[in-house]
Amino acid sequence: MQFLTNPPLLFCDEPTSGLDSFMAENIGQILQQTAMRGKTVICTIHQPSSEVFALFDQ
Fold first, then answer.
1. What is the pLDDT of residue 1?
2. Torsions phi, psi of 54, nearest 5?
3. Residue 12 in 3-state DSSP?
4. Could you tell me if 29 and 53 are in contact, meaning their C-beta atoms sit under 8 angstroms apart?
5. Long-range contacts of 12-21 (CB under 8 A, 24+ apart)
6. Which secondary structure element, helix H or strand E, spans residue 24, and what is its range?
7. What is the pTM of this model?
8. Which DSSP category does 13 fall into?
9. CA distance 33 to 55
10. What is the DSSP letter of 56?
């Protein structure tokens, strides 16, 4: 996935919905890396695995 613009805020409504655990963790890692680069990332997520949950910091 590529961002077409450089948004300061990224809002994701259940980005892991319908994905298997491997892909959900990959998406979580991508969102974490995006946040570490200084972007604000806001996500809603329901019943994440412990691995995905550990990627969220605040």
1. 53
2. -70, -20
3. strand
4. no
5. 12/41, 12/42, 12/43, 12/44, 13/43, 13/44, 14/43, 14/44, 14/45, 14/46, 15/43, 15/45, 16/45, 16/48, 16/52, 17/46, 21/49, 21/51, 21/52
6. helix 21-36
7. 0.79
8. E
9. 10
10. -
The encoded tokens of residue 18 equal: 């319908």
pLDDT per position as a tens digit, 15-58: 989 999 899 999 989 989 988 988 899 999 888 888 888 888 76
The pairing of beta strand 9-13 with beta strand 40-44: parallel
Cα–Cα distance measured from residue 50 to residue 16, given in angstroms and rounded to the nearest whole number? 14
Beta strands in 1-58 (DSSP E): 9-13, 40-44
Query: Residue 40: its pLDDT value, please?
Result: 92
